[in-house]
C-alpha cells in the first residue's frame, strides 16, 4: 500500500530495546571511542569527508547547529560506517520486517547534535528509525522539487524559507520519536532536522 506511493510512520513493528541499551553515550565511547569515524559535510551535492576519532567527535564536535554556518562547514556523522568495526553493534539491530522485491538492505548509523540535519536530497527507498532524541522530517514527492539552497543547512532553511512558503507548497512533515520508524519511497525529496542530540539508524533498500 505504501511501498511505491507515499511515506508512512511505523510504530511497534520491532523491539530495539537491546540495541538502544548499547547506544548510550558511555557504551558507545567505551566500545568505539578510539576508532576513527568519517564525517561528511551537511550540504546537498558535494560532500567533503573528514576522519576523526569517535571520542573527539562526541566530546568536541557534537554540538547544537550554528544557524549562521553553511552546510559545507558543518560536519555530520551518518552513513560512513566501518562495517567490520561497527558490525557487532549493527548485529543487535532489528530492522523493520518489510521488504521490497529485488532490493537488499544496508545500514547507515548516525549521531548528531540538536539543530543539525541534512538538507533536501533524494535516493532510493528505505526506513529510518530514531534510537534517542527526536528527528523532524520534511518530504516532497518526486515530481515536486523543493525550494532550497544546496549549501544551506536545514535549520537555516526552516528559519528563512519555510515561513515564506504558501500552504500548497509546504512539505509533508512529521517528527519521529524513539522507537518510531519512517518509511520513505524511492526518489522522494527529504530533509531532516534533529530536535535533540540524536542517535538514529537507516535501512536503505538498494
TrEMBL record:
Any one of the GO CC terms: nucleus
Source species of the chain: Zapornia atra
SUPFAM superfamilies on file: Clavaminate synthase-like
Residue ranges of every copy of the JmjC domain listed in the record: 72-206
Protein name: JMJD8 protein
Cited InterPro entries: Cupin_8 (IPR041667), JmjC_dom (IPR003347), JMJD6_ArgDemeth/LysHydrox (IPR050910)
Gene Ontology MF terms: cis-regulatory region sequence-specific DNA binding
Span of the signal peptide: none
Gene that encodes the chain: Jmjd8
Amino acid at each position: 500500500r505504501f511501498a511505491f506511493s507515499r511515506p508512512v510512520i511505523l510504530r511497534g513493528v520491532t523491539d530495539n530495546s537491546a540495541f538502544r541499551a548499547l547506544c548510550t553515550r558511555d557504551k558507545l565511547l567505551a566500545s568505539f571511542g578510539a576508532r576513527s569515524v568519517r564525517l561528511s559535510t551537511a550540504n546537498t551535492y558535494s560532500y567533503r569527508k573528514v576522519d576523526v576519532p569517535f571520542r573527539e567527535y562526541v566530546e568536541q564536535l557534537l554540538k547544537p547547529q550554528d544557524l549562521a554556518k553553511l552546510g559545507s562547514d558543518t560536519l555530520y556523522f551518518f552513513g560512513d560506517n566501518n562495517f567490520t568495526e561497527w558490525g557487532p553493534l549493527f548485529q543487535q539491530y532489528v530492522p523493520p520486517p518489510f521488504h521490497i522485491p529485488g532490493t537488499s538492505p544496508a545500514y547507515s548509523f548516525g549521531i548528531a547534535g540538536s539543530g543539525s540535519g541534512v538538507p533536501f536530497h533524494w535516493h532510493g527507498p528505505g526506513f529510518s528509525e530514531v534510537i534517542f532524541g527526536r528527528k523532524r522530517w520534511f518530504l516532497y514527492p518526486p515530481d515536486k522539487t523543493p525550494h532550497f539552497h544546496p549549501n544551506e543547512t536545514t535549520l537555516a532553511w526552516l528559519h528563512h524559507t519555510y515561513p515564506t512558503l504558501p500552504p500548497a507548497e509546504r512539505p509533508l512533515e512529521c517528527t519521529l520519536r524513539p522507537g518510531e520508524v519512517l518509511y520513505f519511497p524511492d526518489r522522494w525529496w527529504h530533509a531532516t532536522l534533529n530536535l535533540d542530540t540524536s542517535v538514529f539508524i537507516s535501512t536503505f533498500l538498494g
